[in-house]
Amino acid sequence: MSYRLNAEIREEIGKNKAKKIRRENEIPAIIYERNREPIPVKIDSIEFMKVFREAGTSNLIDLSVGNETMPVIIKSIQKDPIKANIIHVDFQRLDMKEKVKVEVPIILHNRDKIKKQPSVLMQMIENIEIECLPGDIPEAIEINVEDLDFNEPIKVKDLEIMKNQNIRVITDHDMTICVLNRPVDYKEEEEETEVSEPELVKDEE
User: Which residues span the domain enclosing 25?
Assistant: First the structure.
């Protein structure tokens, strides 16, 4: 899937200028590229949030700046510590012929259709790091957990992506992604740990 976003060159730099940009419902941003000077830009906040919700930090975005369209990924975002709104964005321009390291989200499907019941599904990690050409970056790692069995965790080495020769998985291959456990009977546990009251011993007359 292709994502598109428009950006405009920022001629004026500085803290006060950035505040002015935010008041106009835009976000200050910068484009990084290897062996080149960073390019300061600004983007529409509403347009960016629409793209960010779908593209995240791993999917390619066609960023239009003036007459040029360049492939980028969102390298990082900065949020206001109080309001939690995005106040700055870093983009990384990519060379389509050069490999890049990115984190790809893990999505667990059919959580509500797990056959082993009652059970508790625990997800240990939400992303894995990979290295590949920009054109080979998957949107997400999807796992069907419907047939997951107790105490048989899914590990990184079990993923289909491990078979893809165009992608190198950097995350520890023995790391557990998710596991299905039996629910703990808290009532029974409480009974086992309950401390009995001490008996009162009467003094002998």
Answer: 3-93
Bridge partners of residue 127, in order along the sequence = 105
Q: Do 23 and 72 sit in the same domain of this protein?
A: yes
- Within a 10 A sphere around the Cβ of 121, how many other Cβ atoms? 15
Beta carbons within 8 Å of 68's beta carbon, 6+ residues apart: none
Asked if residue 130 belongs to a domain, the reply is yes
Instruction: Chunk the chain into consecutive blocks of 10 residues (it has 205) and report each block's average pLDDT, rounded to whole numbers.
Output: 90 85 95 93 97 92 95 95 93 95 96 95 97 94 96 95 97 97 66 55 53
DSSP structure class, residue 197? P
45 neighbors 27 (Cβ within 8 angstroms): yes
pTM beyond 0.90: no
Measured CA to CA in angstroms, residue 159 lies from 30, 56, 163, 190, 201 at distances of 35, 21, 8, 39, 64
- Specify if 134 maps to a domain: yes
3-state helix, strand, coil in the chain (%, to 5): 20, 40, 40
